[in-house]
Amino acid sequence: MLFHLPKLPSELRVIHLNQRIGQQRRRMATATLGKLEQLQLNAQLKKEALLRKKNDQKIFVVDFKGDVYAHAVEQLREEITMILATAKAGKDRVVVRLESPGGVVHGYGLAAAQLVRLRDAGFHLTICVDKVAASGGYMMACIANDIIAAPFAILGSIGVVAQLPNFNKLLKEHNIDYEVFTAGEYKRTVTVFGENSEEGKAKFEQELQQTHQLFKHFVENYRSQLDVSQVATGEHWYGEDALKLKLVDKLQTSDAYLLELLPQHDIYVINTRKKPTLGEKLGLQAAQMAQSVVPAVLEAAQTSLIKLAQRRIELRDPQF
Q1: What is the pTM of this model?
Q2: CA dist list (Å): 150 to 15, 17, 57, 85, 129
Q3: Which of the following is catalytic: 7, 187, 224, 229?
Q4: Which one from 135, 157, 216, 254 is the annotated catalytic residue?
């Protein structure tokens, strides 16, 4: 990370999509076409290269695959920082291939703020949704100048959800008291183990409604063409209906969209990843397991304890 240093060093990978596709086309031509057709293909590729040079416009592609906690924002923020530092605002464009059912408010709030950096800097931003961009995922998508979705992609779910179990009755059955001590009237509204009061529940519901209002205002600010009162019901829609409701601007897969841009634009796919350790480079399975399985198990255990100990408000569609 440029400003927030990660525990493990990361590396930036840049793939020139035009060059990669061109090499694949030549391999296919060598295997399936005659000499004349291969010469025609080479001439076409040279013509496209000259056209791209004349056009002199680059398109940078980044991927965001979100989980409940929006962990992918760590890579997204670094990739966006690199684009802002090297690309030409007002000329070059950015495409984000987005996939997310949403998640915690603070995680997706930060992810959305990273995309706002691109808009504020003057970049034209296109977001492609091939599978799902719901709730917090749609909050990210609405920032784009254009939203392109596959015909059966899931979009919308502009709503807020919070859910937690309550074990108070079970504790009472076993004569176990659970005490909560707070300073501040609303420091704790509802709990997992305590007896929740009607006043606490009402305050918690008020907080949910407030979060929903902020969500709706954010969407309305970036997609003024939407009738927010019609779509901010917590429902989600598939591509065709989403287009009618103006949740998206066009129905097309990201592959088809990028393929259309290839002849006239230089397209670069950017992604960051953690650098492999020496053990991983040597193919030592034990080192890989120690560095991936053990932390994952510890994180899962810690997450389970946190879920039981505190409430969680999410911009997420619970159906996914």
Answers
A1: 0.82
A2: 24, 21, 25, 31, 6
A3: 187
A4: 135
